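Note to self: user wants both folds in one dump. Writing first protein now.
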Amino acid sequence: MPSLSASATELAERRRILTHALVETGAEDRAAFQRLYRLTSAKLFGICLRICGERQAAEDVLQEVYVQVWRRAGAYEPGRASPITWLATIARNRALDWRRAQGRAPVTSDAVLPEVADPSPDAEAAMLDADATARVGHCLEQLEARQRSAIRTAFFDGVTYAELAMREAVPLGTMKSIVRRALIRLRGCLSDDA
C-alpha cells in the first residue's frame, strides 16, 4: 500500500508542476512555456496526428495549438479542468478545424497512421498521461452507454457532432444534448477525483 500512496503523491506533484507551468505561461513566462511544451507536446502531437492523419498537417496544427496556448493561457482556471484536459481540448478543436477546412472526413481509430518520430513521451509526461487516462477511463465508465459511446467517438476518434448525429440517426440538437450532458457528468466526476 505505501507504494500506491507514494505513486498518488507523485502523480499529484506532476499535475501541480504542469498546472504551475500553464499558469506561469499565462503570465507570459517564456521558460514556463518551454517547460509546458516539453511536458505536453508528445501527447498533443498524438491528438493532432490522430485527427489530421498526416504528419506534416499534425505538426502545423500543433504549432497553431501552442500559439493559441500562449495567447489563452491566462484564461486557464485550475479549478475547472486539469491542465492536460484543457490543452487536449485546444489540440482537438484545432485539428478538427483543420479537417473541416480541408473538407475531409475524420480519421477513424482503425486507420493506419504514419509513425511518429519519438512515440514515447518522457517519464514525467508518461506519468501525467497514465493518471489522466485512468481518471478519464473511470469517469467514462460512470456514464450511460449512449453517452459513453458519443464521447469516445467525438473526442477520441475526432468525429464532429454532425457526423455523429448522422451515424446514430438522431437530430443534431439531440446529439449535442447527449454530449453536453455527458461532458457535464464527466466534469463533475473528474472534479471529484482531483
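First done. Writing the second protein, which came from a different request thread.
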Amino acid sequence: MSDHFIAPVAAHEPPYYAVVFTSVRTEGGNGYGETAERMEELVKDVPGYLGMDHAGTPGGLSVTVGYFRDEVAIKEWGAQVEHRAAQQRGRAEWYERYTLHVAKVERSHGFERERG
C-alpha cells in the first residue's frame, strides 16, 4: 500500500462556492503540467480559497473543482495576473473545449472510514 493518501476536499460550513472546470485537452504538453502546478500554488494565496479536487478519465475528460468561501474570492482568483495569462494560453494551445460552472453550495457533509 502506498504512503500517498488521496482524499477529497473536506466539507465546509455552507454557504460557499464550487467552481467546476471541465475540459478536454489538445495533444502534447507544451508546458501545461508546469503551469497547472504553478496555478495550484498561486490559488492557495487567495483569501477565501478552501481547496481543490481533480479527476480525469482515460478518455481525456478532466474535471477540476475549486472551492471558495465567497464570490469575492472567485473574482480575485479570476483577476490574478498569472492565472489570466494561463487562461489565454489554455484557449490558444491546451484545450479543445472546456466549460466552467459556478455553483453555490447550500449543503455539505463528508464521511471517512476509520483506518486501522
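Dump finished. Worth passing along: The first helix runs from residue 32 to 43.
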